[in-house]
Amino acid sequence: MAYVINDDCISCGACAAGCPVEAISEGANHYEINPDLCIECGACAGVCPVGAPNPQ
Ligand code: SF4
Ligand code: SF4
After folding, report:
1. Burial (CB count <10 Å: 0-12, 13-18, 19+), residue 32
2. What is the pLDDT of residues 37-54, one digit of tens each?
């Protein structure tokens, strides 16, 4: 399981900068998390201004 970024994402990039395993990149519509890399640390959820990353 991994964190997933929902459609509330405003593409600010804060989560990508703080991810320890560089699992987050800019996708077609908003930032996305590579589930094969995510270690579920929760850092992205902690820095996101709109609460878009959530554990699945
Ligand atoms: Fe990266 Fe941690 Fe967020 Fe997973 S939970 S995408 S490892 S910051
Ligand atoms: Fe999107 Fe939140 Fe990441 Fe910013 S911190 S790019 S709003 S998921």
Report:
1. middle
2. 999 999 999 999 999 999
